Amino acid sequence: MDQKDRITDQPHVISVCTRCVDTTARRRPGERVIAQLSDHLSGGFRVVGVDCLAGCGNTCVVSYAAPGKATWVFGNITSSDLPDLVSFAQQYAGSHDAWFRGRDCPPKLCDNTLARVPGVGA
């Protein structure tokens, strides 16, 4: 099964940039981040790769979105950030609107928040 088809009917979507480049390691961490998130998250999330999230220069950009919830965008993500990404996924799923303060996010994500966009209709 293709990564993009893993959990197709779930309301929460985690998008991971597959074009971002870690210039230090000279690799693109997006595909690895997608695989790890898919393996560590239970139902309720669809993890997808996207060609660009317009956060170029940030190693890897990841966003969390769902109908009626704020969309969060984080940069400088690597596969070593998996615990914070999973923790935030649980926090996000448990919130009715996902409108929290940045400092309430896991530490790595708090320090690398690129945007929090208000949610629109359900």
How does this structure look, described?
- The N and C termini lie far apart (28 Å).
- β1, α1 and β2 (45-50) form a beta-alpha-beta unit.
- It is globular and about 40 Å long.
- With 122 residues, the chain is α+β, with helices and mostly antiparallel strands.
- The longest helix is centred in the C-terminal third of the chain and has 12 residues, at 82-93.
- Helix content is 23%, strand content 20%.
What distinguishing features does this structure have?
122 residues, alpha+beta, 3 helices, 20% strand, globular, disordered N terminus
Briefly, what is this?
The chain is an alpha+beta fold.
- How many beta-strand segments? 5
Structural class: alpha+beta
Low-pLDDT windows of residues:
1-8
Main beta-sheet strand count, sense and barrel state:
5 strands, mixed
Distance between the termini: 28 Å
What order do the SSEs take from the amino end to the carboxyl end, as H and E?
Answer: EHEEEHHE
Main β-sheet, spatial strand arrangement: 2-1-3-4-5
Mean pLDDT: 87
Q: Into which percent range does the helicity of residues fall?
A: 10-25%
> Roughly what fraction of the amino acids lie in strands?
15-25%
Give the helix tally: 3
Q: Overall 3D geometry?
A: globular
The Cα radius of gyration reads 13 Å
Helix-strand blueprint:
Blueprint: E1 12-17, H1 30-40, E2 45-50, E3 62-65, E4 71-74, H2 82-93, H3 107-111, E5 113-117
